[in-house]
Amino acid sequence: MLKLKPAFALMLALPVIVGCSTNDNRYDPVDAPEIKNLFSLDEVWSSSTGGTGDFYSELTVAFDANNVYTASRDGDVMALTLDRGSKVWSVDLADEDENDERRSARVSGGVALGGGKIAVGSENGYVYVLNAKDGSILWKQYIEAEVIARPAFSASGDKLFVLDARGNFTAFNALDGSKLWVTGDAPQELRLRAQSNPLVVGDEYVLVGTSSGKVNVLLQSNGSTVNQVNVGESVGKTALERIADVSSSPLILGNVLYATSFSGGMVQYDLSTFNYIMRLGYQSSRDLGYDEHSILVTADDGTVSCINRADSSQRWANTSLGYRQVTAPVVFGNYAVVGDYEGYIYFLDMQDGSIDYMEQSDSSGISAQPKVQNGKLYVMAKDGSLNVYSYTDQARASAAVSVEQSNDMLAASAAAGLTLNHPGVYDGGIYAPSGVSQEALEQRRAAIIRAVAQQEAQIAAQRRAAEEAMRARAEYEKRRAAYEEERRERLSGFGIAQGIRSDLDEAEDTANESADTEYVEENNTEATTESATNDSEDDNTKSSGFGIY
Hints:
By secondary structure, the chain is of the alpha+beta class. The chain folds into 4 domains: 1-31 and 288-422, YVTN repeat-like/Quinoprotein amine dehydrogenase (Methylamine Dehydrogenase, Chain H, 7 Propeller); 40-184, 7 Propeller (Methylamine Dehydrogenase, Chain H); 196-285, Beta Barrel (Thrombin, subunit H), CATH 2.40.10.480; 503-541, no CATH class. The protein contains 5 helices and 36 strands.
């Protein structure tokens, strides 16, 4: 079914040498595979929406019951009907005063939809919220940093969450644009240009990936971090090796959180028990695809993998699209669909990963993840062409609708009934599930304060003991150095220097001490005289060469 060109087949056979290869072409994209298509697609409609030009930007679309909403890098935001792609309204954000002297509005990240409003962010540092009915600008806010990730509305649409390039995460009142709270994760020394799109869970929680390799679970009410899931670790000798960004959007299916990092792999985390289910070696900076039974991952080297949700085993991995800048995957019927930098779309069989269909949708290339809505596939090209497809085959068309409905139910029930936060203290206040009484919370807070004070006292005592030990050590070293200096001054040449007695001398003195004592006492005067005489004679016979003085 899959026919490889000879050059590509050779590439697959060669080993990959990381870090020491002299082959500068090892990351070049392979040729597009040659495929015999097993079915046909119909193009429902196509429309031009502006695009991203030569810039890499995942300007994804958003849907409601009647329209699809798009945005271009230049600032063209528009609503098109789902059935025919007819323009409902359009607005050009480049016309806003703040963009007059800039290259463009520089919209990035794609369109967010919620509560009858749409939101986009720009690399110029602005957040725009528009009325979904007519495109009128409801409010805009300057946040002094690039907005690369797609914003996110709360389930009710009353709050808007925005992640900026500094790592600051801001909540706005979606009605008037007033700032509710700001939190953040310190940006790393080196990080990816891409950032994680926030994921909302009802009106209570919001999740966001960080450049430090974590997924933070925050309360929508005040921005407090109530849980933190470690996905990737910043390890390695160089800043490049330490990149661990969670730049893909977190995914919650049921009670399980799925998240990937650039270098740290993929985790499955049980939100109901706060336990890690599995850590897998699938590194990715792109969003995940899913259906009722599977998780799909596009690696940065172009490998597309399918993982069984039931046991985390790998069902298949397709490596035929190496370094073709493959997009995040989406499930369309019984196929995983991805695009690439040359504008090809590929349909990978969900059972074995084989490519059953490919077509060049647009030669400008595809960066954004394809989307599925009402049984149709929406593909946004870099030049702004929005191409909509459906299956010609009725069986495949029915399967597409069925899988889409199942996935919508999975998304709607994600984290339902979960209480993700632990009772605790934050910024002088208290948060907890509603079942905990105020009295119990105050007791818990007092206990935490006492524990912290006790720990601080222990740390202070340990610090004092360490300082005293250092002083004692310094004094010992000083005395030891003085002793060594004195000893060196006493020693000269070979043998034993003047004033230093040998072990044999000490033994003889000890053995004769008792016998000599009485004699010495009785003949003190005589012994003293004799000693003086002997000392004089000895001085005359001393040598200055080798031997014993």
